[in-house]
Write a structure and sequence with these properties.
By secondary structure, this protein is of the alpha/beta class. About 40% of the residues lie in helices and about 10% in strands. It has 13 helices and eleven strands. It has a nine-stranded mixed sheet, sandwiched between helices. Bound molecules: guanosine-5'-triphosphate and magnesium ion (MG). Magnesium ion binds next to helix 7.
């Protein structure tokens, strides 16, 4: 299942007690030394506590998981072994369970609609259209699905409702699979893989960063998180807590600092530390606020100035429960900073999982991950076949 990123190195996993000592074999790329450093940059290692007194959200109190994480990962990760079948099955059943709301909204409604129907007529297609739209497939995607179905019925390629249901499933899978770009992220040949994470307020950016960093750490990568959300109170601490939980280093400055300088200084401080992955958290912002989008452009420029090629991934986090608004968020963020990948969160909390199909159909931007819960391992690499299998499953 580890198809979610292409690795550059054969690395052995890091020791539990990771420190920020200089590594003489660093592969960090050259940087442009043309801007003065800002106030002292705080670097906290994953193994040292930051704000112990800070109140943890329930999902952050994960002592047992944290202990599990404390075990060093012992396998080389160059060629991941195929996963054992039982684990795959349990992953799939968890995905089904997590998508239950969406499934009951779309698939069960389709089943009920087709129950006892012998022929495909206009009424049936009209009702199907309504179900698809309310499941957040969007007007464009729904229209093309229904138009295809009508055409197939006319050509007598589809005669009974069961065949229509199978054709619908196939068409949805095609839409998802045909989104051209591969879902896996490709790390650069040298230097760290820098990911800039963006999105509107509260969509799950920081949580997704924590979960994603956890995946990287588990696969033996040395990870640094940069806390460039200096706007929201406690945003820095939230990232530091994640860093501690998953054993990743965190670079931060105080709340209110200029996010571009935090990143500039952070990348400077990360020099020669041999990080494989650097993930930058940014403040939530409304896609319609021009000045905030300008700030994001600046952040991206600064990153690139400091480290050629960075950011290698600009990841937009979308909250699946916001439905069609996610589509306009994707458009505007893409216009500003050229999104290279999507993470779709909170699919466990929505009856409108059709947004996945809609996004794949309307954008040429790959979905990297789907968030199906608040726990550390509730971030799945997006696998179209697995998703459709789970989505269309009628068993629990
Ligand atoms: N159910 C569920 N909740 C999620 C998921 N991802 C994130 N959340 C929750 O969404 C809430 C907001 O998450 P954050 O990660 O703080 O969101 P953010 O985008 O960083 O927020 P700002 O920094 O304020 O813009 C938290 O309560 C998360 O636990 C998910 O996949 N499923
Ligand atoms: Mg955040």
């Amino acid at each position: 299942m580890l198809g979610w990123f292409k690795k550059k190195l054969l690395k052995t996993p890091p020791p539990v007690d990771s420190t920020l000592d200089d590594d003489p074999q660093s592969t960090a790329p050259a940087t442009i030394e043309d801007e003065p450093l800002q106030p002292p940059t705080e670097i906290s290692t994953g193994s040292t506590s930051t704000k112990d007194e800070l109140e943890l959200k329930p999902e952050q109190e994960l002592a047992p998981e944290a202990e599990t994480l404390a075990e060093p990962v012992s396998e080389s990760v160059s060629e991941p072994d195929p996963e054992p079948e039982p684990q795959k099955n349990s992953m799939l059943s968890r995905l089904k369970e997590r998508l239950a709301k969406s499934r009951s909204s779309l698939i069960q409604r389709v089943d009920t609609l087709f129950l006892g129907k012998k022929i495909i007529d206009d009424d049936l297609l009209d009702e199907l259209e309504e179900i698809l739209i309310t499941a957040d497939l969007g007007i464009t995607t729904t229209s093309s699905l229904i138009d295809n179905a009508r055409a197939q019925v006319k050509r007598k390629e589809l005669s009974d409702p069961q065949a229509l249901k199978e054709a619908l499933r196939q068409q949805l899978l095609d839409y998802i699979l045909n989104s051209e770009k591969p879902a896996e992220m490709v790390m650069p040949a040298t230097g760290p893989f820098v990911i800039m994470v963006v999105g509107v307020n509260g969509v799950g950016k920081t949580t997704t960063i924590g979960k994603m960093a956890h995946k990287f750490v588990q696969s033996g990568q040395k990870v640094l998180l940069i806390a460039a959300d200096t706007f929201r109170a406690a945003a820095v601490e939230q990232l530091q807590i994640w860093g501690k939980r998953i054993n990743a280093d965190v670079i931060a400055q105080k709340s209110g600092a200029d996010p571009s300088s935090v990143i500039f200084d952070g990348l400077e401080a990360a020099k020669n530390k041999d990080y494989d992955v650097i993930i930058v958290d940014t403040a939530g912002r409304l896609h319609t606020k021009v000045n905030l989008m300008e700030e994001l452009k600046k952040i991206k420029r600064v990153m690139n100035k400091k480290m050629a090629g960075a950011p290698h991934e600009v990841m937009l986090v979308l909250d699946a429960t916001t439905g069609q608004n996610g589509i306009s968020q994707a458009k505007l963020f893409n216009d500003a900073v050229e999104i290279t990948g999507l993470a779709l969160t909170k699919l466990d909390g929505t009856a409108k999982g059709g947004i996945v199909v809609n996004i794949c159909h309307e954008f040429n931007i790959p979905i990297r991950f789907i968030g199906i819960g608040e726990q550390m391992d509730d971030l799945r690499d997006f696998d179209a076949n697995e998703f459709v299998e789970a989505f269309f499953s009628t068993e629990n």
